[in-house]
Design brief:
Elements (H helix, E strand, L loop, with lengths): L5 E10 L2 E11 L4 E5 L6 H8 L7 E6 L2 E2 L5 H7 E4 L11 H7 L13 H13 L15 H14 L4 E5 L7 H18 L2 E5 L3 H7 L2 E6 L2 E7 H4 L4 H6 L3 E5 L6 E5 L1
Parallel strand pairs: 3-8, 3-9, 6-7, 7-8
Antiparallel strand pairs: 1-2, 1-4, 4-5, 9-10, 11-12
Helix pairs in contact: 3-5, 4-5, 5-6
Length: about 260
C-alpha cells in the first residue's frame, strides 16, 4: 500500500483564542494535483504554514508520507515537501542561481559542497522554469513574474514529493500566470510531483486541478472532483455569491462568471 503524500486527521489550529482551522481531515495522494479555495479568512494560507511548520502546534494529526509531521527533522521534511509562499516584502540580493543552489540544503551534509547530482538538479530547475538566462541576475532586479519563477525554481530544486503553493499566480499578468501554470503542469506530469495549491482564481482551479478542496471559516465544506465544483449550489454555499457557469470553447471545461 502506497502511503499518501499528505494526510490530515481531525486537525485544528488556533491563534490565541481564535480557531483558524477546524477538524480538517483529507489526504493528498502521491502525484495528485489539488486546489484549495475559499473566501478570504477561510484559513487557506494558515493551512499551508501549518503543513510546513512555519506555524506549529494544533490538535489532531498531520502525516507526511506516512510519518507524523512532528517526527521529521527539518532537512528530512524539506525532502518531502517544498513551500512557495506569496510574493511579499523586499527581495534578497542573492542571484537566482544562488537562491536555487541554497534550496539543495536538504540533500547536503553539514558544510558539504554540491556534487554532480545537486548541480544537475539546479540546472534542471532553471531549465524547467525558463530561468537559465536570469541565473546571474540579482533577485531584487527581477519583475514579479520573474521573481516568482525563480522561487519556483528553488522549490523544484529541492526535489520534494509535494509542492505547497500559496497563490503562485497572484498579481501576475496573464502571460506570466500562463507560464507558471505550464511549468506546474510539466512538473506534475513529468516528475509525478503532488501539488497542493491555494488559489483565489476559481477558473484556474477548475482548469488545472484534478480535485478541489474548499474551506469556509476554517472548516472543510467541499472535497471532490474539480468539475463537480461548478454543479448545483456548491459555489453559492461556499462564497454566498451567485456564479454563472459556461463552457470553455476549446476544452469544454466549466468556466465561471461572476454575476
Amino acid at each position: 500500500m502506497i502511503e499518501p503524500a499528505l494526510h490530515l486527521s481531525c486537525y485544528s489550529f488556533a491563534l490565541g483564542s481564535r480557531e483558524i482551522l477546524r477538524d480538517l481531515s483529507f489526504s493528498v495522494a502521491v502525484g495528485e494535483r489539488v486546489a484549495v479555495i475559499g473566501p478570504n479568512g477561510a484559513g487557506k494560507s494558515t493551512l499551508l504554514k501549518c503543513l510546513c511548520r512555519i506555524l506549529k502546534g494544533g490538535r489532531g494529526r498531520i502525516d507526511v508520507a506516512g510519518q507524523p509531521l512532528h517526527a521529521y527533522g527539518q532537512s528530512d521534511l524539506a525532502r518531502r515537501l517544498a513551500y512557495l509562499p506569496q510574493i511579499e516584502g523586499k527581495a534578497t540580493s542573492f542571484t537566482v542561481r544562488e537562491m536555487v543552489e541554497m534550496a539543495r540544503y536538504p540533500h547536503l551534509g553539514p558544510l558539504a559542497s554540491m556534487e554532480s547530482a545537486d548541480a544537475a538538479a539546479v540546472e534542471r530547475a532553471l531549465d524547467d522554469t525558463g530561468m537559465r538566462a536570469f541565473a546571474a541576475r540579482s533577485m531584487n532586479t527581477l519583475s514579479g513574474g520573474e521573481r516568482q519563477k525563480a522561487l519556483l525554481a528553488a522549490a523544484l530544486a529541492q526535489q520534494s514529493d509535494l509542492l505547497l503553493l500559496d497563490e503562485a499566480t497572484a498579481f501576475l499578468d496573464p502571460l506570466q500566470q500562463l507560464e507558471i501554470l505550464r511549468v506546474l503542469g510539466r512538473v506534475h506530469r513529468d516528475r509525478s510531483t503532488a501539488i497542493l495549491s491555494v488559489t483565489h482564481d476559481l477558473n484556474e482551479a477548475l482548469a488545472h486541478s484534478e480535485r478541489v478542496i474548499a474551506l469556509r471559516e476554517g472548516a472543510l465544506v467541499f472535497d471532490g472532483p474539480a468539475a463537480r465544483l461548478a454543479q448545483g449550489d456548491t459555489l453559492r454555499r461556499i462564497y454566498e455569491h451567485e456564479f454563472v457557469v459556461g463552457a470553455h470553447p476549446r476544452t469544454g471545461r466549466p468556466v465561471l462568471f461572476s454575476e
